[in-house]
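Fold this sequence, please.
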Amino acid sequence: MGAILVTGATGNVGAEILRLLVEQGEPVFAGVRRPSVARRAYPEVEFDFERPETFELALEGVDKVFLVRPPELSDAERIFGPFIRAAKEAGVRHIVFHSLLGAEKNRVVPHRKIEDLILASGIPYTFLRPSFFMQNLSTTHLAEIRDRDEIFVPAGRGRTSFIDVRDIAAVAAKTLTEPGHEGKAYPLTGSEALTYQEVAELFSASLGRRIAYANPSLLRFVLTKRREGVPMPFVLVMAGIYATCKLGLAGGLTPDTERLLSRPPLTMRQFIADYRDCWSPTTTPLPQ
């Protein structure tokens, strides 16, 4: 039996998939730009989408790949085409691709273009199309919640079908290790669609202090993020994402997560409770 190569191994989803696969005793490699000398529970292999010379060794002995697109890479054909062709030549028998909810209807997003490249390759595939990550609130929006007691996103009153990355990883591990998922596309959401006002109220109740939903205008959001030093391309991506929320296009729910995991998806309330400590305000001792 060949090994599983996990790309995006240092990200939220990739790291959780690695943990689950190691627990299950699956042979696995973590594809990383710079392998660590530290001893880990899984072997690391040098892998970089922008360095095709790393593909051959990273794919040696591999028959399944978990493929995730690094956020900064959007040129599907130039970046991902060579890797998918290398996977085909290496005899990879299954690619599980971390796509995007609604990618099949949107020809503009790079996720759709990568799906098309995989389809054209003939490699058996599974497309995971998750909704908004709950973990965006513990990473991208961590500082504003922790330090300013606010959620600063221009999403209006639109609802969002958040999903916990731990559920995405659990589905990914399942599709990588069980038969019968080839040729399938799974739209993945949580079990509730919430407004950011409702999310702020859940934060307030759990953290014991008021967390406000700022709901800025799109222009104010863009200007604020630029002042904070966020690169303009990423600001525009974020603005586009939250515009879809504001327009009510991000609130659809699907049964796939619960069906695949044979349990209800993790809730926003559970997510906040599990990650509660990361939003504790930072304190600096007063000078004596």
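The first strand starts at residue 3 and ends at 6. The chain has eleven helices and nine strands.
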